[in-house]
């Protein structure tokens, strides 16, 4: 089992999801993009939100990664950030932020904190992040944190019913500003 972690990201806390986050999960389910690229259920009700939260906890038990709520103080989740170890010393990272919380630097602070955590693990030597080319806010966030764009992966991933191109970004030890 992976250890439970709580990280500070400026004024935000990255913590395990809890029952108090169920309304935030349902709010995320109404976003036109979040359910397409995550496991956020859509449609969403209380039971579906609680099942999502349980799946995030299950990731620790099955050692598939860390999925953390991004919150201000003890408040409900404003988003999610995750770190998922792969093979050969690599891990992928990802994040989403509720529409009303965007534009405040939340994603960059959360990404920086999870990246510091990931690169502090002795078994990891490379973090990877995948972003659709049209998603300028997301790739600018990655670049602000120090991730470097390595290229375009054509038709790399299913997003909803379609195969989509993705920019691949990486971060290596010593590259975090």
Automatic annotation (TrEMBL):
Top-level lineage group: Bacteria
InterPro entries: Acyl_CoA_acyltransferase (IPR016181), GNAT_dom (IPR000182), Ribosomal_N-acetyltransferase (IPR051908)
Location of the N-acetyltransferase domain: 12-174
One Pfam assignment: Acetyltransf_3
Protein name: N-acetyltransferase domain-containing protein
Record organism: Deinococcus aluminii
Lineage of source species: Bacteria, Thermotogati, Deinococcota, Deinococci, Deinococcales
């Amino acid at each position: 089992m992976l250890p439970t972690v709580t990280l500070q990201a400026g004024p935000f806390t990255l913590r395990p999801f809890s029952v108090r986050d169920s309304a935030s999960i349902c709010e995320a389910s109404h976003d036109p993009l979040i359910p397409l690229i995550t496991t956020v259920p859509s449609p969403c009700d209380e039971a579906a939100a609680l099942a999502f939260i349980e799946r995030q906890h299950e990731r620790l038990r099955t050692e598939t990664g860390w999925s953390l709520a991004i919150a201000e103080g003890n408040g409900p989740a404003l988003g999610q950030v995750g770190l998922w170890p792969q093979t050969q010393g690599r891990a992928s990272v990802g994040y989403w932020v509720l529409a009303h919380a965007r534009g405040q630097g939340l994603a960059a602070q959360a990404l920086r904190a999870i990246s510091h955590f990931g690169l502090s693990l002795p078994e990891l030597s490379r973090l990877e992040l995948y972003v659709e080319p049209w998603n300028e806010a997301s790739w600018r966030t990655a670049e602000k944190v120090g991730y470097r764009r390595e290229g375009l992966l054509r038709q790399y991933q299913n997003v909803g019913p379609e195969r989509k191109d993705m920019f691949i970004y990486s971060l290596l030890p010593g590259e975090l500003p």
